[in-house]
Design a protein that fits this description.
about 60 residues; mainly alpha; two-stranded parallel sheet; 2 strands; globular
Length: about 60
């Protein structure tokens, strides 16, 4: 079965698959306090360790307020 067509994958699974495939140098998470899936953020921290950081307020975050 083709992975792309597998409807059993959750949104977090897709995002994780893409991030691991692309292997970003840095992942910036905006609005951590609004995250619906706190467990998913913990998973990202474990996998990407020093490549993940949380925004402390940028022009993009302030635009949404």
């Amino acid at each position: 079965k083709d992975l792309i067509l597998d409807s059993t994958l959750h949104e977090e699974d897709w995002m994780l698959h893409i991030l691991i495939t692309v292997v970003p140098k840095k992942i910036v998470v905006h609005h951590k306090e609004r995250a619906k899936q706190k467990k998913f953020l913990k998973t990202l921290e474990i996998i990407f360790d020093e490549s993940i950081e949380y925004c402390k307020g940028c022009k993009y975050c302030r635009c949404e307020e």
